[in-house]
Design brief:
two-stranded antiparallel sheet, DUF4919 domain-containing protein, two-stranded antiparallel ribbon
Length: 244
Amino acid sequence: MKYLMFVAAILGCLRLSAQEEPPEWKNPSKSSLAYAEYRRKLTVPPYGLAKVKALIDKIPYKEDDSSPMENKDYLPLSLREKFTYHMIHAEISAQNCDVRPPIQDEDKKIFGQMADGMEESVWSDRQSKFLISNRDSVMALIKESVNRSKRMGANYKMAIVEINGREMIPFIIETYNKDQKDRDLLTLLMLLMKNNEYNPFMVSQSYRKLYGDNADYQSYIDYNKGNEDLIIKRATDYYNTIRK
């Protein structure tokens, strides 16, 4: 049933799109497409994974585009199992029928917004409240999982923004420096500075370009050594102000 409803929603979007003149789109390069896929990958926590997946498969589709696990199944879950559930299943559908052109040279950019890895779904109020009220445990579980998998997926980065996990700045930098591949970790650092209104960042040229009046979801700065070093330095300076 959930599959049929998903297909119906996709067909509806396609019908809406067909009514408009298609734009002239250029296909991105192979390296750009590969990086786009890399940005959107999730990290799947191991905590009670088989049990949580089985419970997710039982969730009925609702007409209000929500798919919450019933309390009789959700409440008995341990904290770690609930963390797994929230990281792999967002309860609210936020499907967007807007046809967006593909991003060119995605692998050469540092974006102002992170990639959406949740397939156009968002956490419900219940899920957000769990993450925020258990933020210390959430940060500990993210660190534990990332140290095991050597990867901080899109869902983990989204969770850090959700809980304002600014205490994780050194860990984010450490994770990035291991291979310097995931530039959304740099985006995550900037979002933490932006959301906490760190003034040296708020008055910067980077902030104006990424989050100013003319910015959109594709706004970016070039990926180069200078911008990389500047983001890390600013984030480190910001962290040093909050740990005093």
